[in-house]
Structure formats: C-alpha cells, structure tokens
Amino acid sequence: MPVSDFELVEAWKHVLTLSKISAGQSITVLTSSATNKQTLRTAILAARSVGAIVNRLDLQPVNGALSLSRDPLAYVGVTPLTGNRPAMELLKASDLVLDLMTLLFSAEQHEILASGGRILLAVEPPEILLRMLPTLEDREKVLAASKLLQAAKTMHVTSPAGTDVQFTLGDYPILEEYGFCDQPGRWDHWPSGFLATWSNEGTAQGTIVLDKGDILLPQKSYLQDQVIFTINNGYVTNIEGGVDATLLKAYMESFNDPEVYAVSHVGWGLQERAHWSTLGLYDREATIGMDSRARAGNFLWSTGPNNEAGGTRDTACHIDIPMLNCTVLLDGAAVVKNGVLVK
User: Closest Cα partner for 319 from 338, 300, 337, 336?
Assistant: First the structure.
C-alpha cells in the first residue's frame, strides 16, 4: 500500500536526527536510474528541513550487460564511481552520503568511509522503510548482541534439516546494522537490524542444509526442496539437491571465478518488525529482500567477497542465504535456538 510524502519526510527526519545531522552539515544524495523517486524526493525535503546543505549526484548505471539479474547486488565490485575522481571527492567531502544507488562491496565505499565519511544505504520501497523505521532500541539490541559476538571464538550452527557447520572467529570486524549513521566512518542500511562477521579464512567446516522455504538472494526465491552444501576449509565444495540446487550451481558457475564459493559473512537477524513472508508479496525488482536478511532469529550466511571487512576477495558474485529454524551457538552458548532469539 502506498505511503504519503508527509509520512516519508517525517521518517527521513527521524533517521537524520538519529544520525546526528544538524544545520549547516552537507548531505549528498547518490542516485541512479533505478532510484525510487518518492524516496529521493522526500530525502531531499527532509534534509533541507533540518538545515542541511543538500547535493544530488546522479550517475549512470553499470554492469547491466554483465549481470544475470536487475538486482543491484547481483553483480558487485565495479560501480559508477570506479575511476570517477570528481564524484569521489564530492562524496568524501560530505558529512553524510545517502546511498539510493547501492555501493556495496566496492573499493569506493571503503575509501569514503576510511576518510571519515558516513554512508546510509536506503533502496527498499517506502512502505518497508516506514515499517522498519530504526529506533534507539534497535541500536541497543544490536550492540548488546555484538558484545557477545566480539567475545566469541567459534560459531556453531545446527538445524533439524541437518545443518551442522562451524566457523572460527576473530580475524575480521563485526558488522552492526541498526539503520542509521551516528558516528564518522560508519556505514549502515535502512532498513536493517542484524549482526554479522566473517569467519577466519579457511576455517569454515561442515554441512549446511537449506530447507523448504529458506531464501536465496539475489534470486529472491523460496526454496521448493532442500539444497545441501558441503563446506571444507572455508569454501563450498559441493552443492546437492534438485532443481533449486541445479539452478544455483549454474548461476555460480556463470561467474567463472573460484572465489564465488568462498564463505563470506555469517550472523543472525534481530529485527522483530521484519517478516519472512514479505518477499512473496513484492515484484522481484521492487525489493532487495531486507525483511528476510533482518528477520529476528534467522541465520544469515553468504558466499563471495570479503572486501567490505577489509579482505582482498572482491569477486562479483555475492549470494545471501537467510535460513529459518536454526540454532546458533557462540562458544557453545545459544543466541538463537530453533529460529528464535534467546533473550
């Protein structure tokens, strides 16, 4: 159901306030041809209303001929900012970049953040933005869970479907997503509400069994049958199953890059206002699937790049895989039990 400009302007003002934007600070709104026009329009109105200096930087899309999907996360790494120094200088000089284009997994995003800039990604439809409007309570929940993850040396994940996989932790930072940018050098995503890290290179071992109803992204599909992953020394070494497994293997093979099989980030969802069923209610091009990524009690793991965490793996294929009904153990203590947050 559509939302009014008034509601979305008020939501943007709320997020900008949480992000500590004040009069006289500069905001650059980064856009491309697929940017939601209402999100753009209301972001500019809200930023002006809090006294910010607002610029818009509109860039031409790339990767269209290379990607097998129109999802912005279906082919990552090269962006419209690659080699574009004038644009980069504007973004690095801004107090906050509102990313309505999608810069994820790019060297340019890392460079902007390293210079002290802040980036807030917001590409979901307006009604999803409103439903998962971030709060200070979201931040507290994510940071409390982050303390547990920071202290952990191992993550062990099991499920009734047969998942039994272990990750050694500690070499990479924690990704804390709570929906706003309240400090220099911070990246976040509205909407969100989840926690992740990257396992130490070469340490992921075991079996992950995707069950019926689990989700593949960017495919944006609910699985119709089980898909079984064998993981050895940090890489997916075998994928078994029916049609879903066959299609997934063909998709990954199309990148012709062995790094697409590397285990990337691992974590769990914390957002109570996210819903598993939402993906089935939207056209595939309308959403990137943040409900399933952030849904409270999921286990979210991924394959492909780790350059977001400071690693060197920048393969163009990134697959996010949120799962239901898993138990997530940190050093033997459950933080998620059978798909429900342990409180």
Answer: 300
